[in-house]
Amino acid sequence: ADPPADDYFHQVIAADQKIEPRDAMPEAYRRTLVRQIAQHAHSEIIGMQPESNWISRAPSLKRKAILLAKVQDEAGHGLYLYAAAETLGVSREELVDKLLTGRQKYSSIFNYPTLTWADVGAIGWLVDGAAIVNQVPLCRCSYGPYARAMIRICKEESFHQRQGFEILYTLARGTAAQRELAQDAIDRWWYPSLAMFGPPDSDSTHSEQSMAWKIKRFSNDELRQRFVDMCVGQAEVLGLALPDPQLRWNPDRGGYDFTQPDFDELFQVISGDGPCNRQRLAHRRAAHDEGEWVRRAAAAYAAKSAERRAA
Ligand code: FAQ
């Protein structure tokens, strides 16, 4: 009899090698990857909105050019990740449709508003910082196309994180009002950034299986801890405070004790009821509708080119 379809699969996972698109894989592994990669792609696409809110109001031409480049990178990451998901036998149209109809998620963090220019700094420092902590281990994910996509994306995220840090560093050394703006942005973005890592391990439905399949390499709580430990020193360099009175070094654990984010709020935001959920999806749907003529023109051009090649 033929060996079970997932036999090769388990050997590859055990040997810490990569599963590639044409390899046999359990259906549940494929579905988990489609879910995670699609969510990740959607996050990049929706994630352009909070920052693009500030492109036309950036305080200098240089800041505007940098922010424009960053937001363009995010569009690129989204398309790159949709392509990685497509290697699993789903189409981009299908995934976009699931986003627009609310059947697939995107990261909770992009449902918070960007009220001031300092928010662009806080997003770069904290949100991209959290994204890097989460995504560097994904470069070793067992699914080849996702792991390889993550390498380039992480390099660009590093640039994004530094630009955010540099914005806050500049504001922290500006006027008293600028310093206050920077502190206020950190106060508002800190806990939502901690929540990006997902529910605590005890409530994480997918972690155990995803770690066994080596999609995830660390649990949500492990990565959250790593992020806190990284931010403390950086906040000192900024000369700004993290808004947590419980934050203190714990020599027994070799990490900082900290206050957990409000997970009820996370679930509320995930379920569609955050401060900007409706606005973000409405904006995305409108942009999609407005792009209809571009998709049609591209398809007509592709069909004509194919006809010409066949002739
Ligand atoms: N938001 O069982 P788990 C970026 C859902 S960075 C929304 O622990 P899992 C860069 C989860 O999907 C942001 N939903 O799930 C950027 C599941 O629901 P489901 C994107 C969340 O998958 C910066 C349920 O809760 N990065 O875009 C969240 O094992 C600036 C139970 O959770 C990625 O997506 C949340 N925060 O672990 C762009 C990284 N947390 O699907 C623009 C890749 C949990 O059963 C501007 N993803 N949920 O309906 C991952 O690493 C994982 O999917 C986790 C969640 C860690 C997010």
From TrEMBL:
Entry EC number(s): 1.14.13.149
GO molecular function term, any single one: phenylacetyl-CoA 1,2-epoxidase activity
Superkingdom, taxonomy of origin: Bacteria
Gene name, Swiss-Prot/TrEMBL: paaA
The species this protein was found in: Natronosporangium hydrolyticum
Keywords of the record: Oxidoreductase
A cellular component term, taken from the record's GO annotations: cytosol
GO-annotated biological processes: phenylacetate catabolic process
Top-level class of the enzyme under EC nomenclature: oxidoreductase
Range covered out of full length: 42 to 352 of 366
Protein name as catalogued: 1,2-phenylacetyl-CoA epoxidase subunit A
